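Structure tokens
________________
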Amino acid sequence: MNIVYKTINLTIQPNQNFAEVKTSLPYGKCIGMTIITTTTPEPNEIVNLTILDGGNEIVEGSDFRLSKKTTAGKWIDSLRPMSFNCNRNITTRLSSENPLPGGLKTQVLYYIIQQ
């Protein structure tokens, strides 16, 4: 078994409410993901993180904070659990209902196993 990480830098610019990045995931299965942000303070409203393949949701949008690494257990156990096949192009999207005055700068990490 081989482990591969794929990172995506994703930034909502100040006074905007949307950002997305298209990328290709390598062969394997994504079993976990996490997100970090360097924006301080973080936005004071819900900012959905959604993963799509050709416009179809692979991971339904939910606030990005639900995908942050936790402090419990082993490192892999601290990631948000995922279960989808890779070897395809995806779109990683951040969106909010209202513009974010301070924007939001993030990095998403996909944890992929190859067997």
Summary: The chain is about 0% helix and 65% strand.
